[in-house]
Amino acid sequence: MPLEKATGQDKKLQDRLLQAGEIPQHIAIIMDGNGRWAKRRGMPRIAGHHEGVNSVRDIVEACGQLGVKYLTLYAFSTENWNRPKHEVSLLMRLLLRALRDERDRLHQNEVQLKAIGDIAKLPQDVQDELLDAIKLMEDNRGLTLVLALSYSGRWDITNAIRRMAEDVRLGIVKPASVTEDLLASYLSTKDIPDPDLLVRTSGELRISNFLLWQLAYSELFISDEYWPSFRRKQLYSAIAEFQKRERRFGKVSEQIRKRQGSLEYVERFLKSVSKL
Ligand code: FPP
Asked: Is 209 a catalytic residue?
């Protein structure tokens, strides 16, 4: 079944974004502020996580429609295991339910699902559901949705070095042949290009142990919205901001052949989105 298409006003916004410049190939998101969103409304924290699933659905759909190739969501960090037991347990139930409820729709929309992190730490039923969904979608060629679960950047790098050291011990790898590319091939993201754009919600200016290696040259966009209020309109603003940036990768401006999008066009786009 083909991808559900955007309609009406949303389609117009997407078309303008597509005309304005490059769409990032890989967007990574630190979804933050679920608890504060709920607290502001006098609701329990889990209500924020529930509403956060609706944001996940909307952002995944919009990314698929725009032709984003990879979307990585920081859904549960290594450090999140230290939260109160009942919140961890509710988050795991929510994840299980979201996987069950969304998998057919994701599959119909050609989404490929991947997971990075210490998956063996997740409850067995979550692992089973996750691995089943990954298997079901492995041949899909649309958006690749990467869920970072029980993940941290330091865990990823440590794990990579441990496995590489083992290969050195076995004589498969020579210390002198260790390069950045070789180390990257041991990371959990080995088949995934580095993020072009990192979005963090709730206004915090941290990367919180997310893709430490992979974010080396990513553009950062911090949104003041809490995650449950971060929907496609906010995503479009993040992408338009990205299109204004000049990615130099350590070079000087003159060495960069083309600007990413016309600045005036993108400025106009940002103004019109903020009025909606
Ligand atoms: C951060 O908000 C959010 C999380 C730790 C969990 C994110 C999980 C979801 C959105 C739901 C399930 C995900 C998927 C992929 C279906 P916070 O609790 O740290 O908020 P706070 O900083 O305001 O306390």
From this structure: no
